[in-house]
Amino acid sequence: PARRPTPQDITARKGGTPLVCLTAYTTPVAELVDPHCDLVLVGDSVGMVLHGLPSTLGVTMEMMILHAQAVGRGLSRAMMVVDMPFGSYEAGSEVAFANAARLMAETGCAAVKLEGGVEMAPTVRFLTRRGIPVMAHVGLTPQAVNTLGGYKVQGRGEAGDAVLADARAVTEAGAFSVVLEKLPASLATRITQEIAVPTVGIGASAECDGQILVVDDMLGLFTAFKPKFAKRYAELGADADRAIAAYAEEVRARAFPAAEHLFGDG
Ligand code: KIV
Ligand code: NA
Asked: What are the start and end residues of every segment in region (Disordered) (predicted)?
C-alpha cells in the first residue's frame, strides 16, 4: 500500500478527491475505519460518545492519550490526528506546545487539532513553527458551548465574515487543514473557495475538500441525540438492543447456553 499520508499530503489534496475522515476511539473501530479513511480523528467527542459526559468540557489529556494510544494500535494506513482537550491550549502558546508535544510523544499521532480562529492563530503559528502540525476547527466549536449559548448554526448573515476571517487566520498561521462545523452551506463553500488548505466539513457543505462524521453517530451507536448532519449509515444500536434482548430471553428460558457452548468431562 501507499505510505501513510502526511499533513503535507493532506494539504496537497486541496480541490481534489474529497478527503474521507471519521473519528475513532478504540482499537477495533480504528481497524474498521483504517482501510477507508485518509484521516482518523481521535475527537474529544469521546467524552460524550463513550464516557457519558454532558459536553466535551470534562475531557482530560489523560483520556485523549489513552484513547489515542488505542486508536494508534488499530491504524496502519490512515493519518491519526488527536484533539487537544478543553483547557489544554487556550491559556497560551507555551502551555499549548507542552500539551501538544505530550500528545504527539505519547500517542504517535501525526498532528493535533484545536478549536478556534483569529484568537488561536498565534498558538497555531507557535506550534507549526516548532514541529507540530495543526488541524484547525472553526464555526461551531463545541468546547465554547457556554459562550456560544448552545450548539447553534454559526456564521449566519453578518456573522459569516467573522468565520471566514477565522478560517483565513488559522490558514495563514500554518494549519494544514481546517474543520468547518455547522455553518450555512453557502458560507462553507465560500470559505472552501477562499482558503488555500483543505476544508473538512461536518454540517458544512458538499463542496468542502473533505467530510468528517463521528463514527458512533454514523453507525447508529450513539443515539442520545441526533444532529441533523449526522447521517446514519447503519443502526448498530438497534441491532445491539435486539441481540441483548434475545440473550436475556434465552437466559431466562434456560435456552442459553446450549450443548454446543458447553464442555464435556473428557
Ligand atoms: O471531537 C470530534 O469528534 C470533532 C469532529 C466532529 C470534528 O471535533
Ligand atoms: Na472535537
From this structure: 1-13
Alpha carbons 201 and 178: distance in angstroms, whole number: 9
CB 210 within 8 A of CB 18: yes
Q: Which residues neighbour 203 within 8 Å (Cβ) at sequence distance 6 or greater?
A: 140, 153, 181, 182, 183, 227, 228, 229
76 is in an annotated binding site: no
Domains of the chain, by residue range, sit at 7-234
Helix (H) or strand (E) run with residue 55 in it: none
Portion of the chain with pLDDT greater than 70, in percent: 99
Correct CATH for 7-234 of 1.10.287.130, 3.20.20.60, 1.10.1740.10, 3.10.560.10:
3.20.20.60
Q: What is residue 105's three-state secondary structure?
A: helix
How large a percentage of the chain has pLDDT more than 90? 97
Q: For a substitution probing ligand 1, which of 57, 84, 113, 231 has the most ligand atoms within 8 Å of its CB? A: 113
The pLDDT assigned to 175 comes to 99
pTM given for the model? 0.97
Cα–Cα distance between 38 and 6 in angstroms, integer? 10
